[in-house]
Write a structure and sequence with these properties.
82% of the residues lie in helices and 0% in strands. The chain is mainly α. It has two domains: 3-75, 434 Repressor (Amino-terminal Domain), CATH 1.10.260; 80-142.
Amino acid sequence: MTVRRTVNAAMQALIDGTFGCLDAAAETINARLGGTVSKGTLSKRLSGQLGWPVEEVMALEDAAGRHPVTRMLARRLDTRERTAAASLVEASGEASKEAGEAICAALRAAQSADAGELATAIQEAAEGEQALRRLREALEAVR
């Protein structure tokens, strides 16, 4: 996907999710920048006929309190962000595995009168909690 298409997709999601329509997005830009951007201009930007000026992207992102395009651009320079994303994938896989093992052990313990099965289920649940905690930390590192 080209950069323009990626930016357009992020801006479309931002407009739909925060402003609801092009009229509201245009009014926001005009109020923040003092310009005369219209619904038609935004439509052309989203279709790829025109590019997005940095000022307009910033105005909409700041008004929404979300910064998808800025984050996308910053990731190009921040190798820590790539490391955090890789860590997120790894942590997700580990959390899924550990949670599955904990559930399996809990069901086994529920069907057994063996205290050993219960102890195993408790241990697996603790490992699942730790894996989910690491996943949460990986998610917070992406911010």
